[in-house]
Amino acid sequence: MILASVVELWNSAWPAGVVMMFLGLLFSIALLVASVKLRVSVDPKIEQIHAVLPKVDCGSCGFPGCGQYAKAVAADPELLGRCSPGGQKTAEAIAAILNLQISGGGAPLRPIVHCRAHTEDRQYFATFEGIPRCTAANALPLVQACKFGCLGFGDCTRACKFDALHVVDGLATVDYDRCTGCGACAKACPRSLIRLVPFTQPQMMTVACSSRETGKSTRAVCAVGCIGCGLCAKQSPLFAVENNLATMNYAGFTPDPACDTAMQKCPTGVIILCGRGAPEPRPPKKTAETVL
């Protein structure tokens, strides 16, 4: 009885099975032919270039991702050297793939936060209780007394894919051991305090402030802001004061006694060193013999 049922099931099912096998074979052949006839040829150099890229898709090269940059640089070698995370080694590897020779590249770009005010250094009008984002806080007037300083809500830290930026006591702080110079933090800062700078030296000197208020107004809201006194410019031509703010000529910077003297004479201690192993900034002088 059972045997008869199995035989009957087999006799009724095998034609359908044969048809399914035939259709499967037919579709497999069709897909195989299509994969050969419709295959898009890819330049092997593009695949080689993509293999040497860091593949973090940070966008610092100006393209959405490493794949797009690989295609672009293969077509236009003028784009060589745009990969900040990869640096000089990646540029040299891509140049070798493209049979090009490159001279020594420029100084690597690294971010500098042009503010050094921690929470205790600033004056506040009120406590911000809105969305804890710099973009949200920046949209409101008088969030903090200094309208130029770091807001400290960490938009830059969330943008960094390398864990190279942290908010320490209300101030965005770069970990230069981890930083690749991708520039994501600079794009995320709504106050444009973070700027990419060519690090011609292991440690770069900077005026860590962006305030363009008068010296008296700056002193009233921040203990470590630039007051535009001009003492630094009197010590070294690398400094210049414009619109109440001292700036450093990064391209021309080399450590020298004049710059060191300017840093020591700065009444608010706003001139600091940035980079791997940079010393902690000194505190501002309690009194300043500066006429504002």
Give structural notes.
The protein is an alpha+beta fold. The chain has two domains: about 45-95, 3-methyladenine DNA Glycosylase II, Chain A, domain 3 (Orthogonal Bundle), CATH 1.10.15; about 110-275, 2-Layer Sandwich (Alpha-Beta Plaits), CATH 3.30.70. Helix content is about 35%, strand content about 10%. The protein has helices at about 1-35, 45-50, 65-75, 85-95, 135-140, 155-160, 185-190, 215-220, 230-235, 255-265, and strands spanning about 110-115, 165-170, 170-175, 195-200, 205, 240, 245-250, 270-275. A two-stranded antiparallel sheet has the order 1-4. A two-stranded antiparallel ribbon has the order 2-3. Strand 2 and strand 3 form a beta hairpin. Helix 2 (about 45-50) crosses helix 3 and helix 2 runs antiparallel to helix 4 (about 85-95). The radius of gyration is 30 Å and the shape is elongated. The relative contact order is 0.11.
